[in-house]
Amino acid sequence: MFKKLDEVELRFEHINQQLQEPGIANNQSNYKKLIKELSDLETVVGKCRQYKNANEELQANKDMLLSETDEELRRLVKDEVAVLQKTIEVLTEDLKIMLLPQDPNDGKDIILEIRAGAGGDEACLFAEQLFRSYSLYAAKNKWKVELLSVSDGNSGGYKEVIAAISGDKVYSTLKFESGVHRVQRVPKTESQGRVHTSTVTVAVIPEAEDVDVKIDPKDLRIDVYRSSGHGGQSVNTTDSAVRVTHIPTGTVVTCQEGKSQLSNKEKALKVLYSRLLAVEEEKRRKEASAERLSQIGTGDRSERIRTYNFPQSRVTDHRIGLTTHQLSEVMNGDLDVMTSPLIAHFQAEALKMQSAE
Q1: What pLDDT, in 10s, does the model give residues 344-357?
Q2: What is the arithmetic mean of pLDDT over 98-126?
Q3: What is the pLDDT of residues 281-303, one digit of tens each?
Q4: What is the DSSP letter of 120?
Q5: Can you point out the beta strands (E) in the chain?
Q6: Residue with the larger pLDDT of the pair 34 and 334
Q7: Residue 106 CB partners (closer than 8 Å, separation 6+)
Q8: Count of alpha carbons within 13 Å of 340, Cβ hemisphere only?
Q9: DSSP-based three-state secondary structure for 82
């Protein structure tokens, strides 16, 4: 760990020197990358320097204990040693996590896709509620949510909703939300008060940049048509809706939320690029370790990563055995109660793997 800390500090200083060079800002792409890397390293370097300072203070206090004879002063120094040792333990654990190999997508914005699975109308209603929960959570984190596509349910709710979410640490915070979310509750149409089970699939896809995916324009078919449904009457007067088909893979993306055909085309391409990048990354990951990038399942009732039980006000994440009775808070956007333990769990798993190596 100490060697890696020295490497991080050297890289931090090197980037600082690069940014002082004349004309560095002329290459905007490289300049932005350096600024981003410097920002990422700054937190680690700050923690690293706290760690080194605490160790220096600890050694100085230990040296004092060897030479000091005054018992009162020795007691004070011993107390200080105990505090510093505890501080160093905490800083060590923090640094171990910070020095874990980073997911290259962690700093990216996301495409959030929510689809109704098993359960018909009830699944559509829950898909809308789940999207509302993520939207409220995004607002609390000062993230921007841009609606890209909505397919309304027959009796309310959403069959499908797709949105772009941008902001600080969006993907790293929400990436463990991908999967099947199961809801257990009494539908409004249920006359005998029986609890029904429905499912919704969630996909959190890191947003692709232009350099991430190369697509031959000849492989795209772009259709335009009259917008309808969600979005209000103002979008229904022109052929502003766009459907983009990637012919080699059969991937289809539609967008009709904006009034501008050009805007809808750009949004549809953004989703298409991100989906294709996710597929390519999944292939690479499966070839390397048989681990899926994004396991969203088929929507069958037997598959789930999380269950929302409304009669008991209970939310359970089945991957880590976490249960909370804060269902109302979760549905109103207080998702930290779920996301924080998930992040901590998978960081701990990564540390175990690193130690085993």
Answers
A1: 888 888 777 765 55
A2: 88
A3: 777 666 544 433 344 444 444 46
A4: T
A5: 110-116, 144-152, 158-166, 179-185, 196-206, 220-225, 241-246, 251-255, 306-309, 314-317, 322-324
A6: 334
A7: 169, 171, 172, 175
A8: 6
A9: helix
Measured CA to CA, the distance from residue 61 to residue 78 in angstroms comes to 8
- Bridge partners of 197? 184
Give the closest residue to 202 by CA, choosing from 168, 233, 235, 179. Answer: 179
Cβ–Cβ < 8 Å for 169, 106: yes
Q: What is the pLDDT of residues 229-253, one digit of tens each?
A: 554 444 445 677 888 999 988 899 8
Residue 115 near residue 127 (C-beta atoms within 8 A): yes
Q: How far apart are CA 306 and CA 318, in angstroms?
A: 6
* Contact assessment for residue 218 and residue 248, using Cβ atoms and an 8 Å cutoff: no
| Contact call for residues 181 and 297 (beta carbons, < 8 A) | no
Helix, strand, or coil (residue 316): strand
CB atoms within 10 A of CB 180: 24
- Alpha carbon 306 to its chain's center: 16
Q: Can you give 236-279 as a three-state secondary structure string? A: CCCCCEEEEEECCCCEEEEECCCCCHHHHHHHHHHHHHHHHHHH
- Minimal CA–CA distance to 258: which of 236, 225, 229, 235? 235
Handedness of CA 318, 324, 329, 335 (dihedral sign): negative
Q: For the beta carbon of residue 52, count every other beta carbon within 10 angstroms.
A: 14
